[in-house]
Design brief:
The chain is an all-beta fold and about 210 residues long. Helices cover about 0% and strands about 50% of the residues. The chain has no helices and 20 strands. The chain is globular. The protein starts with 10 loop residues before the first strand and ends with a strand.
Length: about 210
Amino acid sequence: DPVSDTGAPAWAVFIRDASSNVTVTNSKIHDVDGGGDGLPANTIGANRCIYVRTCDASVSNILINNCELHDIGPWEDGDAIAMYGGYNADVTIQYCHFYNFYKRACKVQATGVKIIGNLIHCDWDDDGVNAPAEGVGILASNCEVRDNIIFLRRASWGISMAPAGTQNGVITGNIIDIYGYPDTHCRTSITRSMYCSGLQNCTISDN
């Protein structure tokens, strides 16, 4: 149960730049919350079950397999798994179970990530700010989101792929159900199964 009371993010597992041949499997990571300041998009509250960084160098052959990740807060930026950096992330996330996350199951800001065959669900919305943002957010090229099951209550969307210029992405074979009507519990005024914008040479099929 990683918890920080200093304002610094809480990371249960940190895979650093230039790592290779790392497997995280059959693990339960939960109740990760370093607190927050109520402001999205800053470093305070950016808590992660698993954080993969590629700011200074690529990572290769990273496998996250058959893990259970849940109860990640706070609401402004609690993501179960996040990948960030300008270099390639040869990361596969497969057959994991994500639930009760405040913002996302997976946030991808590094190229070359595959998210395959996971169960992602969340029905938190009990205090007006708890509805999750999305199941999977892809903000990088050459990524694949395939054969996942996503059930989210009042989320903004199930899967997103953006921004403009994102290339060679694949979203296929996913089952997505965003249920519950948008209300003050939502982060946005409407909900969507998918949100895609400005893509190039991408494939979206059979969802």
